[in-house]
Design brief:
By secondary structure, this protein is of the alpha+beta class. The chain is built from six helices and nine strands.
């Protein structure tokens, strides 16, 4: 693996079409030795309305043209978001279709006194990602509904919340526990030992 193409091609500007000859040289080495050559190269900033995949790769279009395969790794919009991997080009002699996009989730792994001694990389299909997003969105919607009802009826109990929200009891209990733990709801013992809830402002 070469990190990066720009550093390996000293003396040749990445916008110069001659940089394609460096990639061609690596391809020749790969064919002769049977060893795949991978190199890292930066992408351009997204351009609205641009549909040419070659424009994703920074510098001369000769870089994209000379590569056998090109994969784009795109960061999320927030810190900690998974990296999305998209195959932008496949070898012309490849018998298989291009890979479906997927995500790589990075997390620090601690050891001893060091909280980030290593890293864990997790592979996730986009179907899994979409399911996780849908689950989080549903949780957020249920939380908003619950908080609205508690604001409307301070001191409401779990038994009265369940039919009003139309959510099963175990789910409401889970939401309440989360909100109490986060300091968004207060919980006191009311009549008949039933817990009453109020929004903390």
């Amino acid at each position: 693996m070469i990190d990066s193409l720009r550093a390996a091609a000293r003396g040749i500007d990445e916008n110069d079409s001659r940089i394609g000859s460096v990639v061609n040289l690596l391809s020749e080495v790969s064919e002769r030795t049977g060893v795949s050559c991978l190199f890292i190269h930066h992408s351009r900033k997204p351009v609205e309305g641009a549909f040419d995949l070659r424009a994703t790769v920074r510098g001369s279009g000769a870089i994209f043209d000379a590569c056998g395969a090109v994969y784009g790794i795109f960061a999320g919009t927030k810190a900690g978001d998974a990296r999305r991997v998209v195959q932008l080009k496949s070898p012309s002699d490849a018998g298989a279709p291009m890979l479906e996009p997927f995500e790589l989730e990075l997390a620090d792994v601690g050891s001893g006194q060091s909280p980030n001694a290593g890293a864990r990389v997790s592979f996730r299909k986009l179907e899994q990602v979409d399911a996780d997003i849908e689950s989080r969105d549903k949780f957020d919607r249920d939380v908003r509904k619950l908080l609205t009802e508690v604001r409307r009826s301070p001191g409401i109990t779990l038994a009265k919340l369940v039919p009003v929200l139309g959510i099963r009891k175990a789910r409401v209990h889970e939401l309440i526990k989360c909100l109490v733990d986060e300091g968004n709801l207060s919980q006191i013992e009311g009549k008949n030992h039933a817990h009453e809830y109020r929004v903390i402002t």
